[in-house]
Amino acid sequence: MNTLEQLLTTTDTVVLDGAMGTMLFAAGLVAGASPEEWNVAHPDRIRAVHRAYIASGSRIILTNSFGGTRYRLKLHHMEDRVYAFNRAAARNARAEADAVPYPVLVAGSIGPTGELLVPMGNMEFADAQAAFAEQARGLVDGGVDLLWIETMSDLEEVRAAVEGVRSITDLPVCATMSFDTNGRTMMGVTPAQAVRTMAAWGLAAVGANCGNGIDEIEDVIAAMHHEAPGMRLIAKANAGIPQWRNNELLYDATPPVMGHYAQRVRALGATFIGGCCGNGPSHIAAIAEALRVPISDVDLAALLAERANNDNGASDPARRQRTRRRDRD
């Protein structure tokens, strides 16, 4: 039995971590710099982020390797450091996970290449697969428990990542897509199509991250659970909708709001619950606290009625606008 399955024997719902980029910018990372380089240049700062999330209740933490393929690192002229950066990312997370007296799993974060596959772009499938395999080798050698493919928009790129990872290891693989265009990914993939396709690949869990905030993630989880009720689902929502204030990008969901979101997505079928952009340790602490309330003690009828009310646009002008767009489509 792998470590993920062992963890799932002890809990029905697993708390994930929050945003890495949000925390690194707060720690001094400047726009345009490589977060992955910090794994070797500032490992203490990376470990501090992991430590804060573990203290907040995360039972799975993601490595600082989202942009760790040769394609993304080439933007920083560091494509020759793929293995070193990814192995260091895994080791930093592993050190903090092993420092606590209870199981915390390390998931190797693998983000999109930023390129388009042929025929829409110039990246060949075999090249993408090789790039993901190269990244996975560093993560596996650094000690991850599972691989976590995230923020994808193209199912073919997800497949390239899955096949690349599986050419290196038999560790569990999870995958999430970002649904940010009228309930679809940028490449037009629906939640039902995503879960149906990825479930056939034998992934440990699938779901959604990032996107257009809490409401969008709830819609996706509901649709995925309806399509594949037996599939373990992942919900990792942004902390609301970003807004520019005083030349700073801020997210509007407070920790209590994220705790309420955690209860709703659990009711809708999610097993793995955390946060994406804008979420920090306080948000994850609120999620962990909310999920400690047994589902039998949560007024599910009230939660689902609230969601139905939001679907009708009674309390959220932005949601009303999105609903009107879907009605026209």
From TrEMBL:
Q: Which GO terms describe its biological process?
A: methionine biosynthetic process; methylation
Keywords linked to the UniProt accession: Metal-binding, Methyltransferase, Transferase, Zinc
Which Pfam families did the record assign? S-methyl_trans
Q: Where is the Hcy-binding domain?
A: 2-291
> Which molecular-function annotations from GO does this UniProt entry contain?
methyltransferase activity; zinc ion binding
Q: How is the cofactor bound?
A: Binds 1 zinc ion per subunit.
Where is the segment annotated Disordered?
A: 310-329
| Ranges of biased composition (kind: Basic residues) | 320-329
Q: Which cofactor does it need?
A: Zn(2+)
Does the record bear Metal-binding in its keywords? Answer: yes
Q: Could you tell me which PROSITE patterns the record lists for this protein?
A: HCY
Give the residues the record marks as binding Zn(2+): 210, 276-277
So which residues are the signal peptide here? none
Please tell me whether the keyword Nucleotide-binding is annotated for this protein.
no
Q: Taxonomically, which superkingdom?
A: Bacteria
InterPro entries assigned to the protein according to its UniProt record, in alphabetical order: BHMT-like, HCY_dom, HCY_dom_sf
Supply the name of the protein.
Answer: Hcy-binding domain-containing protein
Source organism per entry reads Candidatus Promineifilum breve
